[in-house]
Design a protein that fits this description.
Strand content: 25-35%
Structural class: alpha+beta
Order of helices and strands: HEEEHEHEEHEHHEEEHEHE
Helix content: 25-40%
Shape: globular
Radius of gyration: 19 Å
Distance between the termini: 53 Å
Number of strands: 12
């Protein structure tokens, strides 16, 4: 199989598995279908995803589908994210989302890597930094505070989200922190999706003053080791512009991009 063929096969697996097979909903979360759309209700904001071709819906029918999702969450007084991928059809989906009042957030790069030495090889940590798996509420609150500091926006909802995932599927979600002198300086988690070939690496956020010291790399290696123990063949990351170059050096290959389009109530 050529390199191009492998990338095409992995992208097809991503579309078939990671867009169709959803995790069991946490308490208070529900899944609803509207034609080709899967609507997730009960999170900090609504979420919409669907198949690569959006069920063949086009033109005015697509505009109506977009408007229904917006209006559904508007009635709840909530924002909603419509998740797009760079290889989606139709090509005018982003334009139609913008016309309906959705605003794009920063684009991420979807990268994958086979479990192997490059991903699972342990990285040296700075002196005084340790890694620890966490489940306690207090630690999840500390992670939310870290993410808020890193991204400059209120991420307090994240603690509740992680609690929900650990409640409904503790075996399929593992959360880790890097600590220095009792301070959480980085955090990351891995989500296993039974029935798929992928372990998804999430979080991966580090305080600015601790970047460039190998902590992110060490958290990738730790989660890769956990995935290898479960015989999961591939790691999947929707990587920020900061993370993507690191991951590519570790052997991850680019499959596509993903851009969240978000509609927010006026208030």
């Amino acid at each position: 199989m050529t390199d191009t063929d492998l990338s095409a096969a992995l992208l097809a697996a991503y579309d078939a598995q990671m867009r169709a097979v959803q995790p069991d909903p946490a308490p208070g979360i529900s899944y609803e279908h509207d034609g080709p759309v899967l609507r997730v209700v009960g999170q900090h904001r609504g979420f919409v995803t669907g198949p690569r071709d959006w069920g063949g819906v086009r033109g005015r029918e697509l505009d109506a589908l977009i408007a229904r999702q917006r209006d559904f969450f508007a009635a709840r007084g909530e924002a909603v994210e419509w998740k797009t991928r760079g290889h989606d059809d139709p090509a005018d989906l982003p334009d139609r989302l913008r016309a309906a009042g959705f605003v794009p957030e920063p684009r991420e790069t979807v990268v994958i890597a086979p479990i192997g030495e490059s991903t699972a090889e342990a990285a040296a940590l700075p002196p005084g930094v340790t890694l620890r798996r966490v489940t306690a509420d207090a630690d999840l609150d500390r992670i939310a505070a870290l993410e808020t500091a890193v991204w400059g926006e209120d991420m307090s909802w994240l603690a509740g989200y992680l609690r929900g995932r650990l409640t409904v599927a503790p075996h399929d979600n593992e959360v880790f922190v890097a600590e220095a002198a009792g301070e959480v300086v980085s955090a990351a988690w891995v989500a296993f999706r039974p029935g798929t070939d992928f372990a998804m690496l999430l979080g991966g956020s580090t305080l600015a003053e601790w970047r460039g010291k190998g902590i992110y790399r060490a958290l990738v290696a730790l989660r890769a080791t956990r995935a290898a123990a479960r015989n999961v063949p591939y790691l999947l990351v929707e990587a920020s512009s900061d993370s993507a170059p690191i991951l590519k050096r570790l052997g991850f290959r680019t499959l596509t991009t993903t851009t969240p389009y978000v509609w927010t109530p006026a208030h």
